[in-house]
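User:
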Amino acid sequence: MGVAKKYRNWALIAVVLLLFGTAVASSQYKVPVIMTGLMEQFSMDAGSASWLMSIFTFVGIILAIPTGALAKKYGPKALLLAAGGILLVGSLVGVFAADGTMLIVSRAIEGVAFILVTICGPLAVQKYVAPDKIGSATGIWALWVCLGSVVGGIVTPTVSALFGFVGVWMVYAVFAAVFAVLVAVVVRFADGSDGPEAPQEQVAQEKASYAELLKPNTLLFFLAFLLFNLVLLAMLGFSPTWMQSQGMDASLSGFLSTLPMLLAVISSPLFGTLSDKMGRCKPLYIIGMLAMGPSAFLLLTGSGPALWVGAVIMGLLGLGVPVMALTSFGQVLGKPELMSIGMGFLMLIQSLGQFLGTFLAPIILGANLDQWMTLGVVMCVIGFAGTACVALCKFK
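Assistant: Predicted structure:
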């Protein structure tokens, strides 16, 4: 038998991981608010400039599964530290970019860092946090993209005005490097070690197979998470257009469509803490998933107070789903040795769901983009289908 692991303070580890993740995510979201200036400076048209953001999703789809395999071999902490170095390299390439193509290349390199953090952040929580606090820690960790988008949107204009785009690229790289050092120092076990796995665990990991991820119960779990991301991205991508067609100005429609993400600051830690206290994830997962369909329907077809109700329901209930998915994934897999490759597969599912949300919504809306009731009903049905998948899935 192996020696029992002694864990450090779970909140300290979660906050340090959150700070690092937020620095990486804010680097992703530094582009939208200065997109026009970048297009002018690098003579980019709208099509090529759109790659400055979409390259992140593209990289994620390609590298999600390989990253899971690397995490299995080298451990999540090593890859998180590698992400800090890769982000610095990508930022330096951007600083010296002479044209739009090189700037897109720099964003692709930064995207590699992003997918490493996406997969290895939850794995680090699973490894370094005591089992009875994983839900609470995941609830904090899961805020990294939300906070990163807020920081990127608020800080970037000021830094750009003072130091230009070069300053923007360097500031976020420095932040990520500083917090990577914190990860190196803080994210470990109480005895100061990084926790090498027991020999029996190493043997088990060598035998881990992707085929074990394709069992019916696991596929139900993956399908539920895919449908969640599909509904979320359809709402985020197209609800502002619906609101503006009803006479709402662009700034208010933008705020209202992203309000659920802001409210996740409440729901994410709350769902995580409740799951720890209950010792169960499935009931909370069902509640969150059940809220997605109706709230998306309201945000894609409603007006006046109905829009605000939809945003609040999605933010306070629906966006508890990512925390429950990450926290319960190990329960569904049932084998710790599958977590690394499984997390890579789960993030691939997330990327595919997000892609489908932005791909299918305009098709449903039709050539004139006027079939809003149809889109709302379809998203509601998809949300209920995802709820059924969670209900049927067995959580160990």
